[in-house]
Write a structure and sequence with these properties.
Layout (H helix, E strand, L loop, with lengths): L2 H17 L4 H16 L4 H5 L2 H5 L6 H13 L3 H7 L5 H5 L7 H11 L4 H9 L10 H18 L3 E2 H16 L5 E6 L1 H5 L3 E2 L2 E7 L5 H11 L7 E5 L3 E5 L5 E7 L4 H9 L2 H13 L2 E3 L4 E3 L5 E3 L3 H7 L15 H6 L14 E2 L13 H11 L3 E4 L14 H13 L6 E9 L10 H4 L4 E5 L8 H13 L5 E2 L17 H11 L2 E5 L9 H9 L4 E4 L11 H10 L13 H7 L8 H7 L4
Parallel strand pairs: 4-7, 11-12, 12-13, 13-14, 14-15, 15-16, 16-17
Antiparallel strand pairs: 1-3, 2-4, 5-6, 6-7, 8-9, 9-10
Length: 593
């Protein structure tokens, strides 16, 4: 079994235990083990072959090791199966709704035997929830809003899920060998959209391939082990569904059509419509096969994307920008942005250690970051309001800062920071005199997110006005496919950030990707700098940076717009100066390792 599958079984066990009313320590042990296994770079199957090595993992005792081995040998877990006799698995889907926790789910089950989102919606629309203990009319309305969000995102997948399925499919298809040439993902995955609907794969084959051979290739594709339903089988295309309902379209084409097809199937639809309109005005017709003259239908380009764009007198437009948001005009005038590259980044300014809810020590995170090629990192563990993450009070924060500054890892600077909570009234979770002692202060909202637009806006504005806040972490608070963004006035927030020199984070965690592309572009237009951070809770999470970079590229972000693309001293100087502390003092406060 793959790590993610083992983690899923453990996570579902934890959720079912919480519904069942288990004490927090019991279900949290399963949650923490699931998080640990999901974050491992090594296969849990390989680790589990050595009992001693398995129990060396943090938080894994003899009993939990037994549970893991049971899952690996049977594909399931006895306690999970026992709980599923009491509660339908569909109840876990209900828990993805904002405003509905395990306790409320249990009440719904006991009162109405409600176990699906559809049943819950019917009860809410009939007004049957408002009189239940712990609910009320406002909760009922919030549940209906959450269900609307659920419907919008149904059938969509996070980027890593789509990438994982793509990698398995490509590896399987390539086993056929010749005459298959290249297999390229297209569609929203190639454009780096936050979530993915269908998977589009373009498969090239050698020009002399016979129809019989093409049929054999299609039969091979449809023999994929995870295929659940065949949707279509045409001359140059096969469509099917794989696990969890993801649709896959594989298109077979000759190399001479590859460029035109890649443009067409990468999209977006709006970009393609504008591109075809430009082609017509220039006397061409553009489709998925080629760019050709409108009258004689003579092919003029199509083998590569570059030649198609060049014939249309356009610079090559990066896939992330193809949303019909001004990129065609910019390409025609040679003013496309030089988009940020991952290699431009010099550090990572949000990560967590075992001091709060991280999996690794200060030194372990720093060593991994150094191997990544970074010059500096900031350790930003949680403040005390986040009790479930073992958040730190003032005394622990200062002690942790001393430990960070005492840590020695060759070749990398370790900065002492904090991810401090923005409280309900806009105040910060730690005293100003403590924040003044730190090198980096990231302020984030983790609670009371269901307030109205005006209240959330004022709360964020109050935080930005605090002279010790330098970075706003995951600014909208969204969790993709689970929780919508907080409803505040982004223009006001970004205007205030521009005035106060506050930096906005582009959180690279693939279930956040926060800020989104439109807001990143708004920040850029106002001169608000961006920091791309992983928010890493383990060494493996450092690999997530590429998702943040891709989202930043969608927001037209360039190297000059990104705080952590600067060398250390310039980065520190670019931070909002904290009252009573100059950038030179901050630099001196963090000894070189």
């Amino acid at each position: 079994m793959e790590n993610r599958e083992v983690a899923r079984v453990l996570r579902e066990t934890a959720q079912l235990l919480e519904i069942d009313g288990a004490i927090i320590g019991r279900y949290r042990s399963y949650e923490k083990t699931a998080e640990l296994i999901a974050s491992l770079a090594e296969s849990i199957e390989v680790i589990a072959r050595d009992p001693e090595k398995l129990e060396e993992l943090p938080g894994i005792g003899e009993r939990m090791a037994e549970h893991i081995r049971e899952i690996l040998s049977t594909g399931d877990y006895g306690l999970r199966k026992k709980l599923l006799k009491k509660y339908p698995l569909t109840m876990l889907e209900m828990l993805t709704l904002q405003s509905l926790g395990p306790k409320k789910a249990l009440i719904l089950w006991r009162e109405f035997k409600c176990c699906t989102v559809e049943q819950l919606e019917q009860l809410a629309r009939e007004g049957k929830l408002r009189d239940l203990a712990g609910f009320g009319e406002k909760t009922e309305q919030n549940i209906l809003k959450a269900i609307d969000v659920f419907k919008k995102i149904s059938g969509r997948f996070l980027i890593p899920t789509a990438e994982h399925q793509t990698a398995k499919l490509v590896a399987y298809i390539n086993r056929y060998g010749k005459p298959i040439g290249s297999i390229t993902p297209a569609g929203s995955l190639r454009r780096g959209k936050e979530t993915i609907g269908d998977l589009d794969l373009l498969l090239t084959y050698e020009p002399e391939t016979s129809p019989k051979e093409l049929d054999a290739i299609k039969e091979h594709i449809l023999g994929y082990g995870e295929l659940e339903q065949v949707l279509a089988r045409g001359e140059n295309k096969v469509s099917f569904r794989v696990a969890k309902g993801m649709q896959v379209d594989v298109r077979l084409l000759q190399p001479e059509n590859y460029g035109a097809a890649l443009i067409y199937f990468t999209g977006s639809k709006e970009h393609n419509v504008s591109l075809r309109g430009r082609a017509i005005k220039m006397g061409y017709t553009l489709n998925e096969y080629a760019l050709a003259t409108l009258k004689q239908e003579r092919r003029v380009a199509g083998t590569t994307e570059e030649e198609v764009y060049a014939k249309l007198k356009l610079d090559l437009i990066p896939p992330e920008l193809r949303e019909n948001a001004g990129e065609i005009e910019a390409a025609s005038e040679h003013r496309l942005p030089k988009l940020i590259e991952q290699s431009d980044l010099r550090g990572d300014l949000q990560m967590h250690t075992t001091a709060s809810d991280g999996r690794h020590s200060i030194e372990e995170m720093a060593q991994a970051a150094r191997k990544t090629g970074y010059e500096y990192i900031a350790i930003t563990d949680h403040s005390k309001a986040v009790t479930v993450a073992n958040g730190m009070d003032e005394a622990r924060t200062l002690e942790h800062a001393r430990e960070i500054r005492a840590a020695k890892v060759d070749g990398i600077r370790i900065l002492a920071g904090i991810e401090v909570d923005i409280l309900k009234d806009g105040r910060l979770d730690l005293a100003d005199e403590v924040l003044a002692e730190l090198d980096i202060v990231v302020a984030s909202i983790h609670s009371f997110m269901n307030r109205d637009r005006a209240e959330i806006t004022e709360r964020m504005l109050a935080a930005i006005e605090n002279p010790y806040v330098q970075i706003i972490g995951h600014p909208t608070g969204r969790i993709l496919l689970r929780r919508d963004s907080m409803p505040y006035d982004m223009e006001k927030i970004l205007d205030a950030a521009a005035r106060r020199g506050v930096i906005m984070e582009c959180n690279a965690a693939p279930d956040r990707l926060d800020l989104k592309d439109a807001y990143l572009r708004m920040a850029k237009e106002r001169g608000v700098r961006v920091v791309i951070s992983t928010d890493a809770h383990s060494i493996k999470n450092l690999e997530l940076m590429r998702y943040g970079v891709q989202m930043a590229r969608r927001g037209w972000i360039e190297k000059k717009d990104v705080l952590n693309a600067l060398p250390l001293e310039e980065m520190l100087a670019a931070l909002r100066p904290k009252r009573g502390a100059s950038s030179s003092k901050r630099a001196a406060a963090a000894p070189r390792s």
